[in-house]
Amino acid sequence: MPVNNMSFQFAGAAGTGSDTQGRGWAQALMRSGLYVFGLFDFESRIRGGHIFYHVRVSDRPVHCHVRGTDLLVAFDELAVHERLDDVLPGGAVIYDSAWNVDAEAIRRKQAAPVAAPLKQLVDGTGGSDRRMINTAAVGVLLGLVGMPPKVIEDSLRAAFSGRYAGEKGSKLAEENVAVLRAGIAYARTRFQSAVAHRIVPPDSSVPQALVNGNQAICIGAIAGGCRFIAGYPMTPASTILEFMADKQTDYGIVIKQTEDELAAAFACVGAAHVGARAMTATSGGGFCLMAEALGLAGCSETGVVFVDSMRAGPSTGLPTRTEQGDLDFVVHAAHGEFPRFVLTPGSVEECFEAGWRAFNLAEKYQTPVIVLTDLFQSFALKSVPQAAFAFDAVTIDRGELMTPAALDARGPDELYLRFKDTPSGISPRALPGHARSVHMATGDEHSERGFITESAAVRTQQMQKRMRKVESMVREMRPPARHGPAQAELTLVGWGSTKGAIAEAVDRINAEGGSANAYHFVDVWPMPVEAVTASLGTARYLVGVEQNYSGQLASLIRQQTGINVNYRLTKFDGRQISPEDIVARVNDEVKVGV
Amino acid sequence: MSETARQQVAIKDFDTDERSTWCPGCGDFGILNGIKRALTDLNIAPHQVLFTSGIGCGSKLPHYLWANELNSVHGRALPVAMGARLANTDLVVISVTGDGDGYGIGGNHFIHSARRNIDMTHIVENNHVYALTKGQYSPTSERGWKTTTSPEGTHEWPLNPLAVAITAGAGYVARAFSGDPRHMAEMIKGAIRHRGYALVDVLQDCVIYNRINTTQWYRERIYKLEDDAAYDPTDVLGAFARAQEYGERVPIGVFYRGPARPTYEEQVPALQRGPALVKRDLNEYGPADYRKMLAELG
């Protein structure tokens, strides 16, 4: 009997509650002590159309979504037709019995049609708002899987009293609770054994948080001392600016929404130049505009953190769909050559770490850092034990930053050389504002003092000085992380948000008698060539799993290490790859050891 | 600022041994002198000011005086200044741009800086030409002007930066002339003293590429608004009307001085207490504070 391991979809038109109900359901399951993963599939519109929220639940930690759904909750007729293909055998579809739905089509999918009089349940209970049919449907779902309703009732009460002051909030909350109970009662009477799926909350659990990748990056950044963020709204990065805005008072963060992405990125250069830990967040289209500022940060040796949450390109592309198409771009963006870091975290935990680590790398090496994530990871919610956010391990390393006391100790005629040529290439940094640190910085080639020059000798010196930093930057880079056995017939290689799906695919292949392992890259650039060679050099057959057309990481690996990734398993339809997709395509496309 | 009270800034404090790349006779020299004079008069030392600039002959100006500077790229001096000022409100922030830089490629930032009201001064060296790229027409070039990229004469009407600034909400809008550094210094002093975004558009010649708007051309036309007793710079519609005057007579002086408004940074919650942002301890908050964010998501 499938207990505590299943998936759900909440589907309907945009603006009618699929997102809210889906997130609420994920939260309720988490608060019941289970592990969840939530995925929002939406369109570039505010109302109408068709969207859905996917929730996977398990009694063990889950790191990705799965293909298909056991239980579909439809908030309108269209949702039944649009999503029926996703419903797995043994599952069920919950919908309003008043709608024109082909129940036979549901039965042909070996699933149960759960037609409940949702509107009547609302009316019969005295519900005052037609949107309460969503609550009725959730009630039916609760009854179907036998889950105790208390956590949902608590959430409803908290949500409505939070949204409306006074009597209105409590009235709406109680109406919703009544509608919920009517749905539960109806399901228990009429659909007691429609499905075998059950939710049985465990007796004990650890406190978790339901966090998406953007929130995790922000929490990491705030803990890492980020006190300045500028940005221009763009899906899927907007929630980063919004989250930081929500925390501005609690943690003293300056938030600036600017007139365009140029201004946002340049404001960060200005803020970082005078000593703030500054970050901007955008998607690929916005990062195109920011490339100018990236180059200035590189030339003026300013440590700014850029977040690019990728969506499908080129141009506006698929604005609400995911892709890993920007890796080549961010590794090479802006003209000329300068050092940069590119980090590609692949989980909520890794997003958190990248959030604070990026600032240490930026300040220590006085150069830009790009945190590359994607739409899927920006929106996907994962339940994570709160203890997994290791705040005690967060360090703040500002590198060679001269203190006011160190500047005081300098002689009045001792010239401060902002771009001093050093063995490491890193020049001790002083902030503007002190009488002994007056200096210039520029995107023009410049002397050690920061003055513009066209001297061939100085150009060579400064170029070598900047690029010399890469030697020590590489030593900061960690090798790709292995999942699965040390030796395997098949080695999957990925980066960023596909981490969870690849790991689960490896487990499934091995459970089915195959032989696979995987390497996941977070520290992509500068590529730690020796470590990557040690990891991948002896692999028998390498399969790059990437959500882009050409296999961009595979190309970088070939370019940097000479290692050939034997097969490039790519996907670029805007939908996140699932473990099932990977297993199926490995079986179909990769002919190794057979 | 006790340090300011003690210090006595002299004009030579801004001297640097860096040799300029400007052409002999360029109006930029006059502007450089005007800026030094204004800072000296206000007793602002080189380390207390941060210049930001873009690209072009004019944007090289901060290189030729001794002070902090972040020379950015073409058109972006204003957002860089915004970021620096928000992060360190102890700095006096001055952006120096040219007309192509400030009004063309940086035009969007110009409009939004005017209405945003960051406490900063924006000095535009307006010579009506792209000089460093060797003589193409700029956003402020007069219509019909023949250049290498407009051999038949330009087809566009020039941008009126003063009218745009007034309309966009700037609280201090002035025009100066590179041939009168003493008057210019007064305009710049007013701009620095003004709490909010302040524009000083400086008319200047380009001895190589602008043979129309020469120093002589200006001298024949310029008059000072302060000499017009009837002119009221606090009247926004009057200021807008006077900003249209450009031809037979060219006014310089303070066109508009708006009512006192809060600066942007005064309204930022994070800046309403404590020292400047960059002077705060990054370990001000600890794990217990940060865990609250997770508890909210629990």
Write down the CATH class of the largest domain in chain A: Alpha Beta
Largest interface: which pair? A-B, 72 and 60 residues
Instruction: Tell me the strand order in the biggest sheet of chain A.
Output: 6-5-4-1-3-2-15-7
Treating each run of at least 4 consecutive H or I residues as one helix, how many helices of chain A? 20
User: Beta fraction of the residues of chain B?
Assistant: 15-25%
| CATH topology heading of chain B | Rossmann fold
Question: Low-confidence segments of chain B, ≥5 residues, pLDDT <50?
Answer: none
Shape of chain A: globular
Order of strands across the main sheet of chain B = 2-1-3-4-8-7-10-9
Task: State the fourth-level CATH superfamily of chain B.
Answer: Thiamin diphosphate (ThDP)-binding fold, Pyr/PP domains
CATH topology of the largest domain in chain A: Pyruvate-ferredoxin Oxidoreductase, domain 3
Portion of residues in beta strands of chain A equals 15-25%
Characterization of the model:
The complex is a heterodimer of chains A (594) and B (298). Chain A is an alpha/beta fold and 594 residues long. Chain A folds into four domains: 6-190, 3-Layer(aba) Sandwich (Pyruvate-ferredoxin Oxidoreductase, domain 3); 210-393, Thiamin diphosphate (ThDP)-binding fold, Pyr/PP domains (Rossmann fold, 3-Layer(aba) Sandwich), CATH 3.40.50; 404-476, no CATH class; 481-589, Rossmann fold (3-Layer(aba) Sandwich), CATH 3.40.50. Chain A is built from 20 helices and 22 strands. In chain A, strands 6-5-4-1-3-2-15-7 form an eight-stranded mixed β-sheet, sandwiched between helices. In chain A, strands 8, 9, 10, 11, 12, 13, 14 and 20 form an eight-stranded mixed β-sheet that branches. Chain A has a five-stranded mixed β-sheet with strand order 17-19-18-21-22, with helices on both faces. In chain A, helix 11 links the parallel strand 10 and strand 11. Chain A is globular and about 90 Å long. The model of chain A has no long low-confidence stretch (mean pLDDT 96). By secondary structure, chain B is α/β, with parallel strands linked by helices. Chain B has a single domain (2-267), classed as Thiamin diphosphate (ThDP)-binding fold, Pyr/PP domains (Rossmann fold). Chain B is built from eleven helices and ten strands. Chain B has helices at residues 2-6, 28-41, 77-87, 99-105, 107-116, 161-168, 181-193, 215-221, 236-242, 264-267, 287-296; strands at residues 49-53, 68-71, 92-98, 120-126, 129-130, 136-137, 172-177, 197-203, 222-224, 250-257. In chain B, the strands form two sheets. In chain B, strands 2-1-3-4-8-7-10-9 form an eight-stranded mixed β-sheet, with helices on both faces. In chain B, strand 9 (222-224), helix 9 and strand 10 (250-257) form a beta-alpha-beta unit. In chain B, helix 4 (99-105) packs across helix 5 (107-116), helix 5 (107-116) crosses helix 6 (161-168) and helix 6 runs antiparallel to helix 9. The longest helix of chain B has 14 residues, at 28-41. Chain B is globular and about 70 Å long. Chains A and B meet through strand 7, helix 8, helix 9, strand 9 and helix 10 of A and strand 2, helix 3, helix 5 and helix 11 of B. Strand 16 of chain A pairs parallel with strand 2 (68-71) of chain B, so a sheet runs across the interface.
